[in-house]
TrEMBL record:
Protein name, entry field: Dioxygenase
A Pfam entry, by short name: LigB
GO terms, molecular function: ferrous iron binding; oxidoreductase activity, acting on single donors with incorporation of molecular oxygen, incorporation of two atoms of oxygen; zinc ion binding
Domain of life: Bacteria
Extradiol ring-cleavage dioxygenase class III enzyme subunit B domain: residues covered: 35-234
Keyword Coiled coil belongs to the record: no
Length: 270
């Protein structure tokens, strides 16, 4: 199998599972166009640990790590198998690069993983394993983490960073659904930096981008973008997938990173 691109996806609110909207349709199109992966590796801010952990369960359960939503959400399952072999390979790469890492045989898939995968691979027929985000991660470490995982792309693993292009829960509670201008300003700045291959700007987006502190009062939903970008950066090409804006404050854009041929093949899903 030729190498795969890497992806960043905005997983939005848990209700994204039931109401796909623009972003869900776009992810479904991308999933249909991608070469079939041997496995999907997902990093989500909803699994943060002191040191890196890699899920090695052969059948990871679906975790409903949210409260107060409609009953139908809690009935959903994403019954994809795990891939202990490739998860072990990820552990080996991380350990060799100097990361403190442990295998986790019981951890399941949190909603940052299974909700977007419901749209990307709705048949749950591609094995999935999850890698945690270290609590002490910063931009430089997130980039290094992506670079460490990048060789897995040539082994048929789709590296997916799942976060949110903008993520301000206070605004989520108080905006009453009205679009907030800063969401588009921040998102457009990040998209321009990615399109230009301006990795230094991307690394410092939370310092340089307009309204960065409002877009990300805390950084954990931004780090998966850096991991995914670094995992595919050597290919030199990227494509933004417009996912629209949910609830006025959650930018749902996704990005594909890889070689020009890999990105062009996915872009043809439009």
């Amino acid at each position: 199998m030729s190498g795969l691109p890497s992806l960043f996806v905005s997983h939005g609110a848990p209700t994204f599972a039931l109401r796909p909207g623009t972003a869900g349709a776009a992810l479904a199109a991308v999933g249909a166009r991608l070469p079939r992966p041997r496995a999907v590796l997902v990093l989500s801010p909803h699994w943060q640990t002191a040191d890196l952990r890699v899920g090695t369960s052969a059948q990871p359960p679906t975790i409903h790590d949210f409260h107060g939503f409609e009953a139908a959400l809690y009935e959903l399952r994403y019954p994809a198998s795990g891939h202990p072999g490739l998860a072990g390979r990820a552990c080996g790469l991380l350990g060799a690069a100097g990361w403190a890492v442990q295998a986790d045989e019981v951890r399941g898939l949190d909603h940052g993983a299974w909700v977007p995968l419901l749209h990307l691979f709705p048949g749950a027929d591609v094995p999935v394993f999850q890698v945690s985000l270290p609590l002490a991660l910063d931009a430089v470490a997130a980039w290094r983490l992506g670079q460490t995982l990048a060789p897995l792309r040539d082994e048929g693993v789709l590296v997916v960073g799942s976060g949110s292009l903008t993520h301000n829960l206070a605004d989520f509670r108080h905006s009453r659904g009205a679009d907030q201008p800063y969401v588009r300003e921040f998102s457009a700045w990040v998209a321009r930096a990615i399109a230009a291959g301006a990795h230094d700007d991307l690394l410092h987006a939370l310092e340089r981008a307009p309204a960065a502190l409002r877009a990300h009062p805390t950084a954990e939903h931004f780090w998966p973008l850096l991991v995914a970008a670094a995992a595919g950066a050597a290919g030199g090409s990227a494509w933004r997938i417009d996912g629209g804006i949910e609830y006025g404050i959650l930018a749902m854009d996704a990005f594909v990173f890889g070689t020009a041929a890999q990105v062009d093949a996915v872009r043809a899903a439009r």
